[in-house]
Amino acid sequence: MHSLPVFLRLEGRAVMLTGSGEAADAKRRLLERAGARVVGEDDGEARVAIVADGDEGVVARLRMRGVLVNATDRPDLCDFTLPAIVDRDPVLIAIGTGGASAGLAAALRQRIEALLPSGLGGLARALFAARGQLRELWPDAGARRQAIGKALAPGGAIDPLGFDPDVDFWLAESPEADNAELYYIRLSSADPDDLTVRDARMLALADRIYHDASVAPAILDRARADAARIVADGAPDAREAGLTLWISSATH
Description:
This protein is α/β, with parallel strands linked by helices. The protein is built from 9 helices and 10 strands. It has a 4-stranded parallel sheet, sandwiched between helices. It has a 4-stranded parallel sheet with strand order 7-10-8-9. The longest helix is centred in the middle third of the chain and has 14 residues, at about 100-115.
């Protein structure tokens, strides 16, 4: 992973923008959509800057002041890059290529735009509003995560790509989730692209992962960063709360 994707909250905060022309105008519109206060190079408060004309001299001056800089069409001068964005407020999907190809990022954004329903933001807000009820139903964080994951899965009660997902209706049905589940994955190769759709989904939901020592890091990277990873000779004997995976490589 060449960069760490982050989302910056810019509402009311100063962001420098230098340069002119179409590129600068596009960046100004983007910053204003995010609520930023667009300022010039002389502003002493801003800690983030976009140099729309890629001017190396401006970049050097700003970096000497400790400002993080994006230089348009100059990935070699960038401290950060600006992704292609799919906006389903408050859901944001950012697609970056590390400056390798803005065209590729834009093409992927267009494909994803066509897949995601316009009501996706409403689903996110409904889940946010239901946090208290979710905690009451599943006090254990692992069980809660498992229940929500099942409901959001393809064909689930609130599948985000399904027909009119309704959080209130789902919760009114008194949904249940297994408190302890053990799932087995037998890898066919070390390539994460060879995972089945279900295996990839379970990896993303797992609370802990037991695996043999030969399982490739690229496979484990598909799991949540906070999921425990335990090297073992076999699956655990006892069930633990939440979702546990046992992953064995093709050679074991």
